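[audit] Reproducing an earlier prediction to check determinism. Same input, same settings, fresh worker. If the tokens differ from the archived copy the diff job will pick it up downstream; this log only records the rerun itself.
[audit] input (433 residues):
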Amino acid sequence: MHIARLAALLVLSLGLSMTAQAGKPHKKSDGRLSIAAPEATFTSIRVRNGIITKRYRNRSGALATTQWPLILRFESRTAVGFVASATADSRAREALVLKDPDGCLNLASLVEDIELAAFDPDCAGRTEDETWIEVQQEKFDTFELVDNRQTGNDAVRERLVDDVYTDGVLLNTPYLALNQIMAVGPQTGGPASGDPNGAEFDGYGYGADDDFTSLVIMADIGGARVFDLDFNHTPGFIRNLAGFVNTVSTELLDGKGQTAITATTHPLAGVFEPIALFDFSITNPDYAGFDYLQRVDSAPITAFELMSSVPAETDPPPQANEFYDELLSTYFPVAVTIRAVVVAQEAPAFIEDLNNDGKFTARDVRMAGYQLVSNEVEINLTLTHDNLLVDSPDIKCLPRTVIFDDLDGDGANGEPFKCTGKSGSSRSRRVPR
């Protein structure tokens, strides 16, 4: 073993492997996944195809599109311990070992991409029989905040940037062709650059998370969906949203004798939000009698009318806000179903609807060849856009997920003036009743 390549080896035994495994029978999964927030009523447990799904109900709750907590908690009573290995330049790779049948740690697959040897030299050459999930404690990730590259999975982190548009390739970044090819959806950080050294590796974006690499978060909405440059939906695929996790923390033993991992997401604009295209310049006779067109999340184009007039740059904020709020109200509030599951080793960047039931679930993940190590959790939410919950004397700019495009083919989209001020810098936010 070359010392320069293996500068650290750490195995934190939790004293659980003998007591827990001897005293309690194994369950179907190696750990339990639950939703700690948003607060919800636990409604049912469904077992289908050998997969347990815990359903939570929050449809009557009041949530904005941003600034609410999604907290997932993974717990295991039979975990063997956390292991960590670091290279000579202090880049670490860590995991929680859930099972080790032969009692000899040989996690070669965890470190093979950075050319480290197996964890225990005496285990070299043995078949890897461990079940493990990759997890690294993380204080905070968000867009354009440069991540600590000495922790987490480098290969996964380097995919959590705006990748360059390439025709015919399934990309982590959603793109549309408007005046130019442009990335859409939430801010993910890192410029679209062919040179990875020129990108800001912030560990934040679509795909598997670099710090909790085994986590899968699914929601069929907005930029998580897959569509072409013309906004035509490619059915059967969504992007993994785990890369938007901000904080990862661990507990060696909690008060119930469990090893635990907590993943916290503080959703920013566009993460759980539809993408809406609008056209305010309608001359196509097919839409005679209507002043506006919209297309939300690749759905068919629909024509509609509004009571308010399109604001001019000289109009006072209240008049502009009235129009913008009415516009957003044409498709908000939205119903969102979020599902999550933990798999062994690295989670997929994309989830495919392999059983063709129109949903993205843990069963699709398992059918793709991934080993599930937890139950599935599912929560139904109703989200209202922040602007609709705010009273403000200042102008409330439209969100980045509202895009003006020529939907009727007349060469114009009728976009009103550019709103460049702060969105409601003076405001009050009322609790919906």
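[audit] rerun output stored. Observation attached for the diff report: Residues 317-328 form the longest helix (12 residues).
[audit] end
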